[in-house]
Amino acid sequence: MLKYGKFSFGMYGTSPDLSITNNEQQEYSPIEHLIIDGYCQIHQFNAILSYSPRLRYFSCEYLSSFGSTQIEVSMIPLYLTHLSIKYCLLSFDEFELFIVKNCSQLKMLRISTKPDIAYLDASRWERLISHHMYHLSIFDFEHLMRIGSVENIQVYHAMINQFVSSFWIERQWFFAHQHCSKRKQYYIFERADQDTCSCRETGLNLTENICIEGRYLIPNCSIQFASATSLSFQYDYSENRNQFINDLNHCIPLAQIRRLCISYSNLDTDMLVKILCCMPNLESFDPHYRPLKHLSTRYATQEAQIAHLVSQNKIKSVHRRCR
Which residues of 203-235 are buried (b: 16+ CB within 10 A; e: fewer)? Predict the structure, then answer.
C-alpha cells in the first residue's frame, strides 16, 4: 500500500489539473506523506486533500492562487497534521481562508510567505491559531520583505515587536529579524541615529559589489566583505588619509578589487596613488569628479595626473566623469 509519494514539476503551468471530488463512492488514496517539488495551485491542493483523507504530511515548494477563483473545501474529514510550504505566494486573506476550511488538525506549520504586510499582523495570527489550529505546537514562520525607506523600516519594526505578547511567550515561540545579505549589491548609507535599525548587521558578508555613501561609515563599519570585487565610494577627506585606507582595507580586501568608482571633490595625486597601489588587480577605474567652486581650477591638472597614473597601471578600462 503506497503511503509516501513525491512529484517533481517544472515551471509554473506544467503541473496536472485536478478537481475536488465529493463522491462517496470514489476510491481514495491511502497516501499519508506527499511532497510536491514545484508549483502547486491552491485548487490543486484542495483536490489532493479531497482524494487523500489519510494524508498527514504535505510539503510543496510553491503554493499559489494563480488561476484559482475561490478556495473550496472537501466534504470528507481531513487529518492533515504537518504542512510545509517553502514559498507561499498566497495573500494572507487566501491563506487564512484555506487554513480555516481545511487545516483544523495541524500540529506543525512551516511557511515562508510572500511580501504581504498582513502576514506581520500578530493579532490576526493569534486569532487564527486560537480558533482554527488548536493543536499547533510547531510554528516555523519566515517572512521576507524588501524595504525601500526609513519610514517603512519603522512600520515593520513596530509590527514585528507585536510578536512578544503572552500568547507567543507561553508557547515558547520567539521571533527575530535580520537584514538579508544575500544580494548582488550592498549599499551602506549614513543615517541619523533615530533612523538606524537596532538589529545592525555584523560579521561576514559575501556580497561582491559594495557602495558606500557617507564619510563616517568606513571606520565604523562592522561588516567584513570578504568576497568584494567592485567598490564605489565618496571621498571628501582632508586629513587622516592613511587611516582612511587602513579602515577601508579592514572591511574590504582591496587587493581583490577589480572595479573602482570614486566620487570626489578634493583628491590629490598622492592619495590616488596610495589607493591604486592597494589594488593590483584593478581592471576598471571610474573617477567621478565633483568640483567645488574654490577648487574647480585644479580639475585640468588633476585630470592630467590621473591619466598619467592610469597609463602606468594595468587598468584596462577608464570612464571619467565630471559634474
Answer: eebebbbbbbeeeebbeebebbbeebbbbbbbb
